[in-house]
Structure prediction request, 671 residues.
Amino acid sequence: MSFLSWAALAIAALVIAPVAAHLLRRRPPREQPFAAVALVPVSPAVTRRRTALEDRALFGLRTLSVLALALLGATPFITCSRLSIARRSGASVALAVVLDDSLSMRAAMPDEPGTSRFARARQAAEELVAGLEPGDAVALVLAGSPPRVALAATTNLRSAAAALAAVEPSDRATDLEGALLMAQEMLRDLSHIDKRVVLLSDRADGRPDDRPLDVAAGLALWAPLEELVGDALDCALRRADRLGARVTVEVVCGPGSPPERRRVALRAAGSEEPLVTGEVALPGGRGEVALALPPEAELEGVALRAVLEERDAVAEDDVAPVASAPAELGVAILDDAAESRVATGGAPPVEQAFAALEAGVHVQPLSAAPERASELAPYGILVADDVPGFTPESRRELAGWVERGGVLLLALGPQAAAAPLGAGFAPMLPALVRYRPTKSKGVGRDDTELFGPHAQSLADLRAEARVELDLGDTGDGEAPEVLVTWDDGAPLLLRHRMVRGSVFILTLPLGTAHSDLALRPGFLALLQHLVDTARSLGGVGRTEVGATWSFDGVRELVVTQAEVVPAAAPLAVTGEPPRLRVTPPRIGRYLLWLDGQRAERLAAPARSEADLRPRKLAREAGHSDLGGGEATIDISSYIALGLLALLAGELGLRALSQRERARARAPRATT
Prediction:
């Protein structure tokens, strides 16, 4: 509160005046008629009654009057306000509210330790919706990655209030640009002239130095809650992997002034007693520590969790479940070293491309095709670049590995077309492979879904020849699906689903001697698609929160979060069998039942969420003519009426008191 508010309330100190007046009040002693007193000489001493509060009812009224007077004086300076929009000429408004439900929004407000940033942002959104009028339209977009539409544009304000009440905080990363684009799309087709995007976020998306956030021309961006924005220190547990009796823990901290060390403890699920503790050094804001489990501890089948002992801005990322084995995605690459080498030296282009993705994969080159299941077990992806077919033993093991959830990329070239007798690709690819010259230049214009914005980079692949496929019977009644075509309509990329796994067929080899496909940004998009597919199919146990898990070939899927008290409800499953999807919203361990078979996945926080530095806004986003706080409580009139009632009561009590005293002083008749 301001100085004027405190000064007005200081009037309440005058309540001591009625107390002093009643205590200092002196009255003559009450006379009682006694006949024998007439025989006693008059004494000059005067007796006085002990000072005490009298007329307690009158004293209470006077005290209440002073307090009411103080409250009346402070009322103009103390108001409860709510967020409201400023209307232009009284016209109706179309609002798209972007509510940030990411992990950074779980940080506490600086002046309200018990209130999170998300709680304040949702309260502001509710205030905005409550202040809308009939004819106004409102939409709700959630800015946690990936952005989601919680409510399409509607004039039904009750639906908007219900949608806001259902929104819960999550541990996702932040995607403000994507959420703002989605909000603009929702406002585009509305007939309202006044269209605004309201951003309720701390703007901590891990990109504080990027270009300022803004919206397209014709729309107004308003970010009213500046109190949400603030730089704070946060450290997060990115991963905890157990191998034997040792657990490796990775800690990352946001920029600024990270601590030199943080204490880490390992605890059994459901217990607060640490099994072992240690310190992790954080040079540059990142560090790892290996903790040895005590040999006397009975830990077979016990779920473990790593905990950061010192609290920081966000408590939810200070706990991480321990994976029973390193959860990196294994990628095996089988190619001809002579064909895949680079003239400038270094690793083959495929290995360099996986390294450039920074997708948390472990790449392992292979010299020969695996012929045993144990050789394929560590891998979620196998890239076979222009191999001259597989032996029957290799094909049998590869088919079983794919059916259990593996992802195989067959890049076909001249050696694949010249496979020796007995070698082939069935049942992964039951087709006749021919390598022929081509006049096609690149990807067709309509094939942009898989490559996204990088599809344009594949318009000219500079390939002199390509593979043509004569597809036969796959044996399971399902032909390979064409995902991407050349500009003449011939298949460039196909997918063959085999139970839970997938085989991707590329009709172009990856060697730079045949084309420059492996050097294009679109190729990185293809590899990222393979990584996402392998992770969703079970090739790895850990992904970032918000990454969608896809399950092909599964008809019944149940996913629940483990170690939650009370037991969490199953996650919502989207899609239709045999392609089901689910998105984990929180950090932690998840239990999956795939057609009755139990599996386990982990969801980890995004590193960018530890960076709480805010991103800049366009200069116009804070203009006061878009809206602001509006006073909603003014009770001065009621206090004034109450004060008048107290004064009237005091006058009445004084009149009654005087009558009682006059009656007491009147002489009494004697007998």
User: Anything to note?
Assistant: The two ends are 70 Å apart (CA to CA). Residues 46-53 have pLDDT under 50 and may be disordered. The first strand starts at residue 81 and ends at 85.
